[in-house]
Predict the structure.
Amino acid sequence: MQGLYAIYRKEIGHYFVSPIAYAVVGVYAFICAGVFNFSLGQAVQQAAQMEMQGGGAPIDLPGLVLQGYFMFIATLLLFVVPMLTMSVFAEERKRGTIELLMTSPVTETQIVLGKFFGSLTFLAAMLLPTVVPIIFMYFFSQPHFRVTIVLGSYLGALLIGGSLMAIGTFISSLTENQIIAAVLTFVLFLLLWIIEIITPSGTSATASTVFNYLSVVRPFQDFVRGVIDTTSIVYYFSLMGFFVFLTVRSVDSMRWRRA
């Protein structure tokens, strides 16, 4: 555990000492706040128009705003995570510091888990400022929306973000070029994101079910609607576990190649 904590602390320091990390958090929070403000304005305008027309069933405007907001948060991770994970191992390999890491008294599993948990902690810190507009809307909306929906949505954001982090960490362990790692990570993210859409129409029912299950966005939509399904949780943890395992094997192969 000491070796894992040492790697984790090193990774946290790498993120939070760098001014680029703070710039990423600031830009991410600023963009999310801007989208939230725009969505809220559109919702208020829509409510005003419906009131002037004097008809129609009441609409859960706070719920609609939150759904759109969290879907945007998750979509933005599609572009941000490759930039965060591209240097996890690629930079170590390029600078030659991977040699020191391989000869240190830590196991491959401790190295990978330390780096993964460090990235996941930074992801949580990046999501934290996005709760500010939600708190504002909670106190000024009538009736108040359910807090459990917000908590479930953030749980889903952490799970989908963690899954993308695991994939990006694995790809970063395969190359020393950060640009290649970022591009490959984004391409794989995009395929998992839209796999449900690009499934051929003539695909068999079994294959279609498998493709739909591989979609990373479909389970997240359940979280955004306030539905916490154990199947979705198992899916994300399985995805994280699978790519963490592949990363351990990749790091292990690096050690043997240098032996």
Summary: The mean pLDDT is 82. The chain has one domain: 2-258. The two ends are 25 Å apart (CA to CA).
